[in-house]
Inverse folding.
């Protein structure tokens, strides 16, 4: 009987550590995804501006619209824009968290280890100090959970993320944490694809614009309109909702 109780307590402790590890991974991934999303939306705003300007000038006379089409394309393919988009395609590992964030994450991990040790110590002395093993485990679990909540909420506050993300993560079960982490990894991968796709679209727009310079007014007017459409109508470039 003694061996069975000890083994069960060890499994409970191991499961607790695993859940805390998943929470840390989820919150770090969410923080990185929020940063990626914010950066991508900034460069995608160029496409949105192009779309709005294109739609707003549809009723203008061809000579006026011809000039407007040229101007909106030149704004979209400027060196600053292309440089920003190219930089977004270069996926870089931000590495371990630094500064205050590092302290918070390390504290979460240390708290996870301490909580697991505390559970083991309580389990080994349960026959002497507590009549109920269940009540022995619940007290350190609640205490650890409260400290983890404070650390996770503080880390999100430091990074400017919405507090409800930390609340949602803390409420997830272990299986849900696995699913949430995998979902966010896929979204992050799609953002890398979007950035590359946007870069290719703008580079082609730049080439098409340069090649259209030798055309006469009528043919170039039509070419300018057609080269814009693939950029503003590509739904694959739109930011993700998560």
């Amino acid at each position: 009987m003694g061996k069975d109780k000890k083994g069960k307590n060890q499994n409970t402790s191991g499961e607790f550590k695993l859940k805390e590890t998943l929470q840390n991974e989820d919150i770090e991934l969410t923080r990185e995804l929020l940063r990626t999303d914010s950066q991508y939306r900034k460069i995608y705003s160029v496409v949105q501006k192009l779309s709005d300007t294109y739609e707003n000038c549809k009723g203008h006379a061809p000579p006026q619209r011809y000039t407007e089409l040229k101007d909106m394309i030149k704004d979209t393919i400027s060196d600053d824009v292309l440089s920003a988009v190219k930089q977004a395609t270069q996926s870089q590992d931000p590495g371990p968290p630094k500064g205050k964030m590092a302290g918070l994450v390390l504290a979460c991990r240390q708290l996870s280890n301490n909580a697991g040790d505390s559970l083991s110590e309580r389990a080994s002395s349960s026959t002497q100090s507590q009549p109920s093993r269940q009540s022995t485990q619940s007290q350190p679990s609640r205490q650890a959970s409260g400290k983890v909540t404070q650390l996770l909420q503080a880390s999100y506050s430091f990074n400017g993320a919405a507090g409800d993300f930390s609340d949602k993560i803390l409420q997830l079960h272990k299986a849900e944490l696995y699913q949430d982490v995998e979902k966010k990894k896929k979204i992050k991968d799609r953002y890398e694809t979007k950035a590359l796709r946007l870069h290719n679209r703008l580079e082609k727009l730049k080439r098409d614009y340069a090649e259209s310079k030798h055309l006469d007014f009528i043919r170039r007017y039509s070419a300018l309109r057609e080269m814009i459409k693939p950029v503003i109508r590509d739904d694959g470039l739109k930011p993700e909702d998560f």
Summary: The chain has one domain: 2-237. DSSP finds nine helices and no strands in the chain.
